[in-house]
């Protein structure tokens, strides 16, 4: 791919992870994911972030530099916004070949450069407000934004163009064609697709660090930003407020517990006896004009469900008792909710059992751990009767009332 021009002397060097790869070796990316590096060229040349050392990605990155007429030997600076190896995997080899390149990063990055890549020389630790003048009016200003995503994370603002290189913040999954790198190079449907992929990315990667995202957005408010260039996904220039507000909303879900008019149903069924109750759930949710997202475990990857769980204030868990405990795939979902700090939600659990219950005890423990407001469970032996189906509808109504009654604002 040819590099994308952001403005005179500033380019995106973008490559894509294939849809078959798992992001972080864990999360499905059926639409792929871009990794965005950048070139800022004044009298001197700086690269902002490199690329994962995976398959041909370093060669593709190098090829895009070559097409810009940039030889590695002419690069003076490498700005490391974040050490996660999706952006630095190639760093060890790059610096070995180009030991003259001076690395700018936060002080927390310094020991990581040594531990990851045995790089200990020619490093300049920065503090918020420090600048690097590249000549020809190009000035990079640094901002420490710890824990968005790792503790050493920073962002860079190029003063003459107003471009914020925001690292993982404001990023999304989804491969990006360099020829269509901007929010105004795709149509509204595609933009919405990237926004959905931004939510999936956020819930998988960033959710646990939401208070830091809110803090970073506040910290950057006074900057005259004209363009936002994240390390994944589209570059925003037509309407930067769209991605800022989206991320502000995503981060607020950490305290609001999600949209009070949305419920995510996570369900699993061994022989169909729990599944038989789902239409009662759907009917009661529809009657209340609430949005329902559904995910079946283990058939669907958890990474696909977490985005809907994150944005929903209400959760319905439908699962049978399995050997005196919870249906294991749902326990796995709750474990991930805990790891991603998806707290303070409102939850109803329903499900069948064969000879005796048992899931309920474990569900209660998870409810306490997640600080979820739990409705009384509705369980039945074997197939749900008409009476039990009515009880389920009442349980859903009670859940919705609880979601609407409580303003959960708790850090
Ligand atoms: Fe895109 Fe946290 O690395």
From TrEMBL:
InterPro entries: Flavoprotein-like_sf, Metallo-B-lactamas, ODP_dom, RibonucZ/Hydroxyglut_hydro, Rubredoxin-O_OxRdtase. SUPFAM superfamilies: Flavoproteins, Metallo-hydrolase/oxidoreductase. Residues 34-232 form the Metallo-beta-lactamase domain. GO terms for molecular function: electron transfer activity; FMN binding; metal ion binding; oxidoreductase activity. It holds the Pfam family ODP. This is FprA family A-type flavoprotein.
């Amino acid at each position: 791919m040819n590099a994308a021009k952001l403005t005179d002397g500033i380019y995106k060097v973008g490559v894509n992870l294939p849809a078959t790869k798992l992001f972080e070796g864990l999360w499905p990316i059926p639409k792929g994911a871009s990794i965005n590096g950048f070139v800022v060229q004044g009298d001197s040349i700086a690269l902002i972030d490199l690329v994962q050392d995976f398959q041909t990605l370093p060669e593709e990155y190098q090829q895009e530099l070559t097409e810009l007429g940039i030889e590695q030997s002419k690069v003076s600076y490498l700005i490391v916004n974040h050490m996660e190896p999706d952006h630095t995997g190639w760093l060890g080899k790059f610096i070995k070949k180009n030991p003259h390149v001076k690395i700018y990063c936060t002080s927390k990055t310094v020991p990581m450069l040594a531990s990851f890549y045995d790089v200990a020389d020619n490093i300049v630790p920065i503090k918020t407000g420090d600048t690097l003048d590249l000549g020809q009016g190009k000035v990079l200003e640094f901002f420490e934004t710890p824990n968005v995503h790792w503790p050493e994370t920073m962002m860079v603002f190029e003063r003459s163009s107003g471009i914020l290189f925001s690292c993982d913040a404001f990023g999304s999954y989804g491969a990006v064609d360099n020829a269509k790198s901007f929010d105004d190079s795709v149509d509204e449907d595609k933009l919405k697709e990237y926004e959905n992929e931004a939510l999936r990315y956020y819930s998988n990667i960033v959710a646990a660090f939401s208070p830091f995202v809110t803090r970073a957005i506040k910290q950057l408010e006074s900057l005259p930003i004209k363009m936002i260039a994240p390390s994944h996904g589209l570059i925003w220039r037509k309407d930067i407020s769209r991605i800022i507000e989206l991320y502000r909303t995503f981060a607020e879900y950490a305290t609001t517990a999600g949209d009070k008019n949305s419920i995510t149903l996570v369900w699993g069924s061994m022989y169909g006896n729990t599944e038989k109750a789902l239409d009662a759930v759907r009917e009661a949710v529809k009657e209340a004009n609430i949005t329902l997202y559904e995910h079946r475990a283990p058939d669907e990857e958890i990474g696909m469900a977490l985005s809907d769980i994150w944005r929903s204030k209400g959760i319905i868990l439908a699962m049978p008792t399995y050997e005196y405990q919870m249906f294991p795939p749902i326990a796995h979902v709750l474990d991930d909710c805990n790891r991603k700090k998806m707290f303070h939600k409102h939850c109803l659990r329903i499900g069948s059992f064969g000879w005796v219950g048992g899931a309920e005890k474990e569900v209660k423990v998870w409810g306490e751990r997640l600080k979820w407001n739990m409705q009384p469970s509705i369980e039945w032996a074997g197939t749900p009767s008409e009476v039990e189906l009515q009880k389920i509808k009442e349980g859903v109504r009670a859940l919705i009332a609880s979601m609407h009654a409580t303003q959960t604002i708790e850090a």
